[in-house]
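S.,

As promised, the flavin mononucleotide run. Input:
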Amino acid sequence: MGWKAIHRWLGLTVGTLAVVLGITGAILAFDPVQQAWQAPAAPANLPVATLVERVARSVPGAEEIRHLPSGAIVVFGFAGDQPQASYVDPADGHVLGPWQPSALPRWVKNLHRSLLLGDAGRWGAAGIALTMGLLCVSALVLLLRRMGGWRRLAARVRGTLAQRIHVVTGRVVLAILCITSLTALTMSASTLGLVTLDTRTEPEVFSVVTGKPDMPGAQLATLQNLQVQDLRKLSLPGATDPEDTWKVVTVQGQGWIDRYSGQMLAWQDATFAQRIYDLAVVLHTGETAWPWAVVLGLAGASVLLFWLSGVVIWWQARGQAPRITGNTPLAQADALIFVASEGGSTWGFAQTLQDALMQGGHRVHTSALENFQTTAATRQVFVLAATYGEGQAPAHASHALAHIAKLKASAVPVSVLGFGDRQFPAFCAYAKALDQALRAQGWPALLPLECIHQQSGQQFARWGVALAQALGEPLVLEHVPRVPPTTALTLVARQDYSGASGPATAILRFAWPAQGPGAHLRGHGLARFEAGDLVGIVPPGSAVPRYYSLASGWKDGFLEICVRQMPGGLCSTHLLGLHEGDSIAAFIRPNPGFALPRSRRPVLLIGAGTGVAPLAGFIRRNDKRSPMHLYFGGRDPSRDFYFAPEIQRWLAEGRLATLQTAFSRVPGGGGYVQDALRRDAERVRGLVAQGAIVRVCGSRAMAQGVAETLDAVLAPLQLSASALKAKERYAEDVF
Ligand SMILES: Cc1cc2nc3c(=O)[nH]c(=O)nc-3n(C[C@H](O)[C@H](O)[C@H](O)COP(=O)(O)O)c2cc1C
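Predicted complex:
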């Protein structure tokens, strides 16, 4: 079982009970805070002898002085025959008021320590603490794997909202939760009798009655040399027993003092186990320092957040879990498909490939990549691999590469198909590493490595055509991704831009759908989105969604896209044919790699044609007036200067700092957007030198041209588009 499975199943099962311990722990953390407010702490270097003298003056019947972990002093004694416990001000000994043990109900403590189940519950709580420890260790392994190592631990977190919450909270509180579970285990070991803190019996000592009067506490050398910060408890000799002694308990141990001579009669050092236990208590409860108790309380409460986000992540992954149908047993299969997937979508592609091969008469076996092997019956092997982290393998396949590198190659061809996203600097790096390793081992390939961007069905179909040719068989790969639930969106406004003949492009604005309260939390309705995220639209007559970059965020109160008529395009024809009041079926797909980080750094926005849409969305939401500079490329300002009136307004409002345009089809229009960048080379260099973040949106050819231009412009700074990408300062949204 891998770390991910351990983490998932422990989290989903025992994690539920860990939530109870986390929340009760958070409640118990109030105690030290409340105690700190109740009474002042004693000055650290006050001699205990002085404290005894002050207490003796103000509390005549005092029997015991306790130095609480919070630092406060409490004196126990009798007034007449009434037991009393009072806070005492160590500065002058005056009584501050009665001592209250804890305002929290006892059952909260019992629930935390034993789940209200007595001794059996204590074992249960210890088991939960152990599970929490395992969850922390597995979380650390997964976190490092996901982020791509220690050095990238602080890097921006990508993924769904639940994934981001889980990872970001984990980065903040993981160490504290580790400490909490370790200290809980230490304390449990003592409570359950697995470790005995002190096996020694107390010595039988007594004061030697000589007829002399009691020596006052203020004159006892031991108490003069002992500071309050080290004191735990001081028991005064009883008035009715002449042989009674002083008993002092300190951080270092405990001692007994003759009441008449002031001599130390016996001393026992605290055992090593006792010291470890004391440290564990302090770290687990925060009782000596209320700010630490606050930190512990917040960490305890975060367990609920972990559990909730973890359940959502599991639920989302469950929906995409591999469910391969029609698998032939490995030994009989002539075609093998091995899959490496984190989110599950690659398994869907594997199923499509399996179905198509089966239709062609093949016996196919599909399995996870870590099971890579061939048999006597194998004729073809296909590896479908997604990339995660900084070019790493999906978690379940983390050892697959090493495993493959050790296998002896056979003559069976192995073809690799990578799945990735060009937003990431290490595009399909894992598939590339697999391909390299296979070739180095001497495995032949039926097809060269192909990398699929953003799960593109079209690209997969093209690979299918090449595969059919190579196999010499008719084979069609028509992949229909599982479409998430859609929401109906109603068109409220459209702005048309004429092409050479008829409307060719339009900015379409849809109303934010009416959704009941809590719909977002329940995962119903339209997910919240930011400009630059994608809206998936399923046109009538098709099950395959098309994706458009969003020109607005949910906070704008509407959903806006810019659509260009594609020749024969089913979805663009559908969208451009809409009238106000018509509806579409849509869902949101986050595009976190393209989102702008919260920062005051300059932003260089480069867009061509409808690619300006997400950039317009960024500018619209620039309430903080970060310096944003837009380079816009079009053909003809009278036809395709999308968002022109808004852009002018944003310039006037200061949301957009500067605008440079380039129109390629009009004389003196400035050429392409790359030409505008080249003309402004010095300024662009200056902005990048100031730390500018770059976002590019448009066609693949345009993005390629921009990257090449920027490589030349930035060369004097020893920078390039790919270097900026690696630093997460440069992202593209290409179509
Ligand atoms: C957190 C995260 C990290 C990713 N890292 C990379 C990466 O480094 N390189 C890459 O090409 N794609 C990366 N991707 C994109 C995925 O590889 C791509 O979406 C793939 O199709 C997902 O397949 P799966 O659903 O089977 O896991 C990443 C995606 C996520 C959510």
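The first strand starts at residue 62 and ends at 67. The chain has five domains: 3-29+106-197+290-316, 44-90+203-270, 330-471, 487-589, 603-734.

- D.
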